[in-house]
Design brief:
alpha/beta; 60s Ribosomal Protein L30, Chain: A; Alpha/beta knot; 2 domains; 8-stranded parallel beta sheet; 4-stranded mixed beta sheet; 9 helices; elongated; tRNA_m1G_MTases_N; RNA binding; methyltransferase
Length: about 250
Amino acid sequence: MDVEHSENIVYGRNAVLELLQQKPESIEKIYFQFNTAHPKLKEIIIGARRQKIVTGKARLEKLSLIAGTTKHQGVCALISTVTYYSLDEVLASPRNSSPLLVVLQGLDDPHNIGAIIRTAEAVAADAVVLVEGKGSPVNAVVHKASAGALSHMRICKVKSLVRALEYLHEKDIQVIAADMDAELNYNDADMKRATAIVLGMEGSGIAPEALKFCDHVVRIPMAGCVESLNVSVTAGVLLYESMRQRLL
């Protein structure tokens, strides 16, 4: 059984509800019992959805494993161990003279998120930006897949992908996305200037409303039989092209 277990767990209906009301930004994910009818559990579920917090159903056995006790009352909340930054904070003290950011629309695989954070740190990117309530939480799997990079990379959380891209435009940061049907080769885009690389969800790619805010959509040439690259590999290609250009 694949279990997300951490010492940073809050369990019990009253405790989780209080946390949800007082510090919702600290919650990565809430697990709740199948077929629940308790009014407080329903209140927690409704509140979590309103706050766009990731939720998941779990059987009693899994809840007990996550909480480390059988006294969880049908609900557990995973608390973030990550310090999140705002885009304002990142851009106020960039690592690069021309900031470089990676924006993830909502990846479901924590291994992909961790691998992208690892590569972003390797090229000294300024931040990795996540969207609240979308994709996998930043959990122990992400920590492991990042090979320690998560401790060094600044992570931002935004409520809306579209509003975040609008904000980046206001700050004169170009937005680049990858698509296999694009006409522009990735190495023909000018990544020496301030750049945000946007990566879509596994399988479905970047949402149409986000594409409207992309200054360039680029393609990575494919010579073999496969039609596309894994999203973390795509991130690696684009990030290292950006570093290559900046080192010229």
